[in-house]
Structures are given as structure tokens and as C-alpha cells.
Design brief:
With 287 residues, this protein is α+β, with helices and mostly antiparallel strands. It has six helices and 14 strands. A seven-stranded antiparallel β-sheet has the order 1-2-3-7-6-5-4. The protein has a seven-stranded antiparallel β-sheet with strand order 8-9-10-14-13-12-11, with helices on both faces.
Length: 287
């Protein structure tokens, strides 16, 4: 009997879950001339593999919950709307960020959006939306009309201050910031962190910030990176008066600097000017 009760509760929760995301879809003729073609389909949890088999694992890494997909038609024209629900705002930005490129055509929709090819992408709160057309002639009009309708249907969600606000603005490559739920910079010991690209003239460097939340986790990130740099014979020296610990060295044949404090572990890779690098990290340590 207890198992049946648990099953019933989960069944009711799943129904509410699905109904909530269904309400985000545009209704028939809410955009003049466009009506739904066929029924919407919802893929929850592991069933995502039935819809986007090759990319499903990446979405699961960012806390995928469910996706609803709906076809629309207007005469011979067709548009497909996909709305992905992720577990929180940070992970929604994450899956959006790793699929965007700073060179894309960005538009003011939701938290941010862009158009690439015949698809409009945007994110808002914990939803990531893709609106796909099969005709370039629809691009600048109908896709954005769909996006505006969906944007209005998604309530704003407040979130604690993001580490994105920690990144220095000077020399930042606009829209290069990314969130990695795991394997930041390709290191298995780096997870739950942000990375941004910077450029001075023709020289580039990267700044990364790991969301530790407490001193023990920050120290673990720091020691893992320091040990890796040491094992690869890149360690240079300890740096005093920066956070609770800091060092300089080389990684991937590039100069690196790193520190940790009670909340974050952060570093710079590729910036040769030590004075500039340390000034940036000192500012980060105070935030």
C-alpha cells in the first residue's frame, strides 16, 4: 500500500510538471496564422535520449528535467518549438552558454538570445528555448514573434548573485562567459565553475572562477590544481598576501596564477604580465 501511495504522489507531481510546461507554448493563432500541427510531445528525464540521443548526456550534466516540443504550421510554412526545463537558473545559463558563440547575432529576448542559421535560441529563468524554421524568409519576423510570446509566459525567477558578476569587464570578450557543471578546462577535478575569455591586442587569456561556497571545497579545488601543475613540472612559486593561498606556474605551456579564499577558487591562464594578473586576482578575492 505504501508503494502505491508513493507511486500515486509521483504520478500527480509528473502531471503537474507537464501541465506547467505545456502552458508556455503559444496557442493557435496567438501568432496570427500559426496553428499547432499535431500533438505536443514531452520527454522527461532519461527519455531525452529518445529525442536528442547524441546530445542528451550533456543536457543531463546540466540538470535536465524535461523538454516539450511542438510543431506549428502556417500554410506551407512550419516552425518547431522546443522548451527545455533545467533544474535551476545557473544550469540553464550553462547549457545555453556552451552552445553559443560570441560571434553570433544576439537579440534582446528573455535573459539573452541569438539567431543562428534558421533557429532562434534564448533562455529565461530555468527554461532554454529553441525555435526552428525551415525557411529563412521567416527568420526576422515569425521566429521573434514566437519568442516574445513564450518570453511573456515565463515568470522571472530571482536568484542569488551569480559569479558572472565577479568577472572583470576590462578586456572581456563579450558573451564569452560559460558555466561548466563538470570538467572545466578539461580537468575532472574542476566543476561548478565559470570561465571567460579575455583579449589584449592579439593576445588572449582566460579567467576561471569555481563556486566553492566554503573553505574546505575551495581548498580542495586549489590543491587539486596545484598538485596537477606541480606533477606536470609547471609549478613556479608561492604567492603571499593573496587570499588564503596562491601560486604561479605554467599549465598547457601558458603562464598561470591561482588562489583560493573561503568562498571561491579562481585563476588566470595565459596572461604573462604578473602584476596585472595579481591585481585581477586581488580584486576577485575581495568580492
Amino acid at each position: 500500500m505504501k508503494i502505491l501511495k508513493i507511486f500515486f504522489v509521483l504520478f500527480i507531481v509528473n502531471i503537474a510538471f507537464s501541465q506547467n510546461i505545456t502552458k508556455l507554448l503559444p496557442d493557435n493563432n496567438e501568432i496570427k496564422g500559426w496553428i499547432k500541427s499535431g500533438n505536443s510531445r514531452i520527454f522527461e528525464g532519461e527519455r531525452l535520449y529518445e529525442y536528442i540521443d547524441g546530445a542528451a548526456e550533456t543536457y543531463h550534466n546540466y540538470g535536465f528535467r524535461q523538454v516539450i516540443t511542438q510543431d506549428y504550421k502556417n500554410g506551407n510554412n512550419q516552425i518547431v518549438v522546443d522548451i527545455y526545463e533545467m533544474k535551476d537558473v545557473k544550469n540553464t545559463f550553462g547549457i545555453y552558454s556552451i552552445e553559443r558563440d560570441p560571434k553570433y547575432n544576439f537579440i534582446n529576448i528573455g535573459n539573452q538570445g541569438y539567431i543562428e542559421g534558421t533557429t532562434l535560441y534564448f533562455w529565461k529563468s530555468n527554461y532554454y528555448i529553441k525555435i526552428m524554421s525551415y525557411s529563412k524568409s521567416q527568420l526576422n519576423q515569425d521566429l521573434q514573434l514566437f519568442a516574445k510570446i513564450i518570453d511573456k509566459k515565463i515568470p522571472n525567477k530571482s536568484e542569488k548573485r551569480s559569479l558572472l558578476s565577479y568577472f572583470p569587464k576590462a578586456n572581456l570578450v563579450k558573451n564569452s562567459e560559460k558555466y561548466f557543471s563538470k570538467d572545466l578546462l578539461g580537468y575532472s577535478f574542476f566543476y561548478d565553475g565559470f570561465l571567460a575569455q579575455y583579449k589584449i591586442g592579439n593576445k588572449s587569456y582566460q579567467i576561471f572562477i569555481l563556486d566553492a561556497g566554503n573553505i574546505n571545497k575551495a581548498l580542495n579545488f586549489y590543491n587539486s590544481f596545484k598538485n596537477y601543475v606541480t606533477k606536470t613540472k609547471g609549478f613556479d612559486k608561492e604567492i603571499k598576501d593573496l587570499g588564503l593561498g596562491a601560486f604561479s606556474g605554467k599549465v598547457m605551456n601558458k603562464k598561470c596564477f591561482a588562489f583560493y579564499n573561503s568562498k571561491i577558487m579562481a585563476g588566470i591562464i595565459g596572461l604573462e604580465d604578473e602584476k596585472s594578473a595579481l591585481n585581477i586576482l586581488k580584486d576577485l578575492s575581495k568580492k
